[in-house]
Design a protein that fits this description.
Shape: globular
Strand content: 15-25%
Strand order of the largest sheet: 1-3-6-4-2-5
Helix content: 10-25%
Largest sheet: 6 strands, mixed
Distance between the termini: 31 Å
Number of strands: 6
């Protein structure tokens, strides 16, 4: 399906691996946190103050989040830094092929495969190269919007294929 980059989400968490994928290219990403598949009980663990022992180290990557003040308002934000030792796959696929790739992965037994963001273009203005904009719906959040400055080559979707055992936690 024309994947341009792919990694397994492990010890550096989703955000760490996404930063690794985009930093060298100078491209930016809108990551829709509402679409990130979560393991059952993940939000409940956060509410109880239960975090991975590696989470504090991974939180240093928050400097790559262009809108951290807004992102902090979302209950699942800390989970972007959660290290997984058997996480899912994170891939960038051309936008016009993303739906077909998702359908094929779901048919192959990965039911939580979904599009979680989009590559928005190369850095311009005050946004650093390799920046991640965390977008979400709801109170204090913002939904992703297309930019007129997006180039055709930036028309790429970021998708995640979660582990077979995971299920999305109801919001």
């Amino acid at each position: 399906h024309g994947a341009t980059a792919c990694t397994d989400v492990t010890g550096f968490g989703l955000l760490g691996h996404l930063v690794e994928m985009i930093r060298a290219s100078g491209w930016n990403v809108d990551l829709n946190i509402d679409d990130v598949p979560l393991l059952d009980g993940a939000l409940e663990c956060l509410k109880l103050g239960i975090f991975s022992s590696l989470a504090p180290s991974n939180m240093l990557l928050k400097r790559s989040v262009a809108n951290e003040a807004d992102a902090l308002k979302h209950a699942a934000y800390p989970l972007l830094f959660d290290p997984q030792t058997a996480g899912g796959l994170l891939a960038t696929v051309p936008a016009d092929k993303a739906d077909a790739a998702v359908k094929k992965l779901i048919a192959a037994g990965y039911p939580h495969t979904c599009v979680i963001g989009r590559v928005t273009g190369q850095a311009a203005g005050t946004v650093a190269a390799g920046a991640i904009q965390v977008v979400f719906k709801g109170e204090g959040g913002s939904a992703p919007a297309a930019s007129s400055s997006d180039s055709a080559s930036a028309d790429t979707q970021t998708q995640a294929a979660g582990p077979r055992r995971s299920k999305r936690v109801a919001k």
